[in-house]
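Its record is quoted verbatim for completeness.
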Amino acid sequence: MNYRSILATLALCLTFDARAALIHQYEFNGNLADTLGGPALVANGGSVAAGRYGFAANQGLRLHGNLGATYTIDMRFRFDTLGSWQKVVDFSGLLQDYGFYTSGSGYDLYNYGGSFGHLTAKQDTRLTLTRGADAAFRIYQDGVLVGTVADKQGYADFAGHDANFFRDDRGLNEAAAGSVDFIRIYDNVLTQAQVHALVDPSQVPEPAGGTLMVMGLSLLGLSMGKGRRQRR
């Protein structure tokens, strides 16, 4: 590994640590376990196979625990069909109709209106959702920001409720069959540059001045250590 590679790796790690920590990671490699040791997802039917969780309409997944009002959710999934309303994330413990849906071929945080991004049935899409302390709810598709909603009503605030994925409070009416490759959850907001770096790791966010100082000292230590080894 050359110094440039070390610098890029260190920049990415330090930049992420300064903003948000990965707290749940579900890879669906034969089970619904959190690879970070947290609670496993609970399935309402469906099955895990070939590194994915597949589900029929309204089977979906539940995560016990409160993700709160500030978070990042990152996933790659597909729906087999696209309809008028199909819920992707429910924030209310399945108690309310509000939530994050696909609507036609776009995304929608109901009930604010708007259509963001573009989906194709039976084709994977990477969806990243962030919500900050300012209630700004951002929607990224394949690393690109496609919409921002001011969540003034708190529809995307988990507020003590479990998170539900691909399940609707109305049963089969507003849910779709499909599959998901992974779900990862962070405890804070990833910036636009950080979200882009999830999709394209070569695009490392530019570190702040303090981070540059830390990296410079680290590289100096590596250089000095290499010199000492050569002299021995």
User: Anything to note?
Assistant: The chain has three helices and 14 strands. Residues 209-231 form the longest helix (23 residues).
